[in-house]
C-alpha cells in the first residue's frame, strides 16, 4: 500500500522509515516503538514490511490520528542471511524498501534492528558513501563515569587501513558535537598502552596521522581500562576490536545488574535495604540499559541510517527513532561532509 501523497507533501515533522520486520521480536516491538515515538515525540513513521502482519500489530494500538503509515514490502531478510545474497536477491525486502524511501526523499532517515550486514550493504549500495568517505562506521554511544563516549567502528569493518580510522575519527568528532554537546571532543585511539610506541602497526600509523589531523583534539592512545572511565569523548578502533569491546561491555553491564539482583534477594536485611536504594538502582539500570540509547548511526553513508540491536525492545525502537530524528535536525550528514572535506 502506497503512502498518501498529501501526507508526504504536507508532513510538518521528521519522517522516518522503520524496518518493521527487523529484529528478533519482529513487527510486535517495532510497531509498539513506532506508536510511542509518534505519540510522545511527534515523529512521522513509515512502517515498512509485510502489510498484513504490520497492520495486525498496529490494530492492537490506539494509533488513530498519529502520523504513522504502512508501506508494503513482500520480502524479509532473515537475521542469519548473507548480506550479499539479501542485496542481490531480495529487492523488495523491508530493509531495501525502507532505504529506497530515504533515497527518494519520502523519508528523512531509516531505522532497522534487522540483519546488520544487510543494512550496511544495502545502505552503501543504494545511498552511496559521502564524498571522501571510503568506509562507513557504526558509532555506538557508551555510558562512562564522565557521562557518555562514542566508540567507532563497532562492526562495519573487520579489517581497516590507517586512513579508514582517520576518517572514523573525523566522523566521530563531528557526531560527538551533536550527540554529546561537546564543542571540542577529546579523540582517543584504542590501543594496548598509552605510549605512542604501543600497539600494532595499524595503531602506530594511525597515531602519527591523527597527531597531524587538523580540527581534532587528539589525546593519544586510550587503553581498554580507560574507555568507561570517560578519558576520551570519542574512541576510535577497527570494527573487529570495537565489536568485541562493545559486546563485552554489554555483557558486563548485564552481569552487574544480575549480581545486584541476586545479592539483594539473598536475605531479609538486603531486601529491606534495597527498598531504600531503589531510586539509585533504577538510575543505575537506566545508565547501563542499551535500550535507553536505542540505536547507533552508520556514519559515512549518504543518508541518516540507524542500526539497532537485534534484541531491541519497543523502548529501544522508540529511542532509535529519536536518535534518527536528532541526526536529521542537527544536520549530521552536512557536518560530516564539511569535516571530511576539511580533513
CATH class of the largest domain: Alpha Beta
Shape: globular
**Oligomeric composition of the shown chains:** single chain
In what range is the share of β-strand residues? 15-25%
Q: Number of helix segments?
A: 13
Q: Can you tell me the CATH topology of the largest domain?
A: Isopropylmalate Dehydrogenase
Tally of individual domains: 2
- Give the spatial strand order of the biggest sheet: 3-2-1-4-12-11-5
Task: Indicate the topology.
Blueprint lengths: L4 H6 L4 E5 L7 H15 L2 E6 L1 H8 L9 E5 L10 H7 L4 H11 L4 E4 L3 H12 L9 E2 L1 E5 L2 E6 L9 H18 L6 E6 L9 H11 L5 E7 H4 L6 E3 L2 H26 L3 H21 L6 E5 L4 E5 L5 H16 L2 H11 L1
Parallel strand pairs: 1-2, 1-4, 2-3, 4-12, 7-10, 8-9, 8-10
Antiparallel strand pairs: 5-11, 6-7, 11-12
Helix pairs in contact: 2-3, 2-12, 4-6, 5-6, 7-8, 7-13, 10-11
Descriptive notes:
The longest helix is centred in the last third of the chain and has 26 residues, at 239-264. This protein has 343 residues and is α/β, with parallel strands linked by helices. It starts with a helix and ends with a helix. The protein is globular. Helices cover 48% and strands 17% of the residues. The model is unreliable at 1-12 (pLDDT under 50). It has two domains: 5-133 and 300-342, Isopropylmalate Dehydrogenase; 139-252 and 286-290, Isopropylmalate Dehydrogenase (3-Layer(aba) Sandwich). The strands form two sheets. The protein has a seven-stranded mixed sheet with strand order 3-2-1-4-12-11-5, with helices on both faces.
